[in-house]
Amino acid sequence: MGKRVLYIITIVIPVLFVSLQTKAQQPSVYEIKRMSFNIDGFSNIAPVIVKDGIMFCSDRRFSALTDRTGFDGRRLYNIYLAEKKDTSEFRKPRVLKSERNNKFNNGPLCFAPDGKTVYFTSEVETGKMADNKNFKNHSGIFIAELSGTNLVSLRPFKYNDPKFDIGQPSISKDGKYIFFASDMPGGNGGSDLYYCELINGEWATPVNLGPKVNSAGAENYPFMHTSGKLYFSSDRPGGIGKLDVYFTSLINGFWDDPVLLPEPINSTSDDFAFVAETNLQKGYFSSNRRREDDIYEFTSTIIRKASCDTLTENNYCYRFFEENAIKYDTMPFRYEWNFGDGNKATGPDVVHCFKGPGTYMVQLDVVNLVTKEVTYNEKSETIAVTEIEQPYISAPDRIGANQKITLNADSTNLPGWKISQYYWNFGDETIAVGKAVDKSYSKPGTYNIQLIISAQQEPGANVKEACISKNIIVLPKP
Predict the structure, then answer these.
(1) What 8-state DSSP symbol labels residue 52?
(2) Are the CB atoms for 190 and 183 separated by under 8 Å?
(3) What pTM was estimated for this model as a whole?
(4) Is residue 212 over pLDDT 90?
(5) Are 347 and 323 in contact (CB under 8 A)?
(6) What pLDDT, in 10s, does the model give residues 100-120?
(7) Given this model, what pLDDT does residue 247 score?
(8) How far apart are CA 386 and CA 366, in angstroms?
């Protein structure tokens, strides 16, 4: 019959394993610290990130002896610049001077894209009527140019009105939109968020962001991030404290449901005026969790690896064929395969999928259909079916928006590792730890999940880490 050669070819067929595990307590996404330039006994609010440091508003004294108070006896806010001394420390804040310093509040503020034009909040009425203690002076937005530490060439925003408040401006990165808070008539609650579009060099009529963003409560302190996320503060029900920080995004022309930021940014106190750097890894916000309003810095604890292997599905399927049978398919033989796992197949060219890893003895018996002679164990070979050495993400490839799923790392294969942590980065600025974790996505899109596994540190050795990634597609709600 001649020497027969057994050929085995692996065939990649995805296999998904899902199991449930006890969920681990999840880490905080942020770490915070109180800024050193806060002064006890005074309010420090509304930080703005600038090239040289931070600008913010404070009702602190100009001198050690004199309070700055308005006609109603309340201390006045002004704008200060705290320049960076190094990566973590700031110099003593300096006040920004303007013609309004001594009689009116100044701030919160924002900058236009040119870095020189300042939009800030101040009182609308400046005449004799403003001197009356019984007069309710409403706030508006004013525009100025920054020259050193002086605000010059002041002019009012065209939609200021003595009958209601407008303030807390934020301008988009491209300068085409200005967002602000106002209690103008026609809103949903105490104060709402509005925006104006810059058309032919003029700000168009204010547009209310609508009931998805605005509530029956008060929405304040909008901040339009370069990512397109709009952060704001609200006292709506369902928060952690009084004022809480939320964000929303414009999806297909509609504002999405606001998302509450987690602790420790939000607390049982008032938390507001959130701003962040471009990469969202660092930023600032205001809070009265120590009774007075103070400014806090936050840093993101999210880990995301720049280099991470793509998940490869384990392969338990093989193709078996007998070479001579392929060459001479007119010869009257029957080929019978025994795969060593209780399964058999007949044919010169077959595919078999083993249930899982293991060592299997594959045997080929050949039957001569003319003489009926059977050659047992004509060819045999031991097949070692193994898993790829890698972390493993068990998760579906596609899910619906707001569909809750469980992801797990049960099928991770890292021989010799004493695993200390399973860390998940879901690709949407959320994380989790644990061998099995629950997740849902509110917005459609493609998200790249990273699973980072750390081993227990051994004496004198570096901590071993392995990273694997997998895309998951989130489909719109049906």
Answers:
(1) T
(2) yes
(3) 0.76
(4) yes
(5) no
(6) 888 889 999 999 999 999 999
(7) 95
(8) 28
Residue 160 has pLDDT above 50, yes or no: yes
Query: 96: pLDDT confidence band, cut at 50, 70 and 90?
Result: very high
- Sequence-distant (6+) residues with CB within 8 A of 237 are 217
Task: Return the DSSP state at 217.
Answer: S
- Averaged pLDDT, 131-157: 89
**Separation of alpha carbons 120 and 301, rounded Å:** 32
Torsion-angle region of 427 (φ positive above 0: left; ψ -120 to 50: alpha; else: beta) = left
The Cα–Cα gap between 314 and 294 comes to 53
Residue 117 structure tokens: 């034009």
Strands 259-260 and 254-255: unpaired
Listed residue (113, 58, 38) closest to 294, CA to CA: 38
Helix (H) or strand (E) holding 323: helix 323-327
* H/E run at residue 181: strand 177-182
Assigned CATH for 315-385: 2.60.40.10
Cα 157 to Cα 139: distance, rounded to the nearest angstrom: 11
Q: How far apart are CA 29 and CA 440, in angstroms?
A: 17
Higher pLDDT, 171 or 63: 171
For the stretch 292-308, what's the b/e string if a residue is b when 16 or more beta carbons lie within 10 angstroms of its beta carbon? bbbbbbbebebeeeeeb
Q: What is the Cα gyration radius of the chain?
A: 33
Report which residue type is found at 119. Y
Give 82's contacts (C-beta < 8 A, 6+ positions apart).
35, 37, 53, 54, 55, 56, 90, 91, 92, 93
**Position 311 pLDDT exceeds 50:** yes
- The answer to whether residues 170 and 181 touch, using CB atoms and an 8 Å cutoff, is no
For CA atoms 90, 172, 110, 274, give the dihedral sign: negative
Residue 227 per-residue DSSP state: T
Strand residue runs (E) in 43-106: 44-50, 53-58, 78-83, 94-95
Q: CATH topology of 315-385 equal to that of 398-475?
A: yes
Domain ranges across the chain: 30-300, 315-385, 398-475
Under CATH, what is the fold of the domain 30-300?
A: Tachylectin-2; Chain A (2.115.10)
pLDDT at 462: 84
CB atoms within 10 A of CB 433: 15
Type and span of the H or E element at 128: none
For 398-475, CATH number out of 3.90.10.10, 3.40.630.10, 2.60.40.10, 3.40.228.10 equals 2.60.40.10
CA distance linking residue 245 with residue 120, whole number of Å: 21
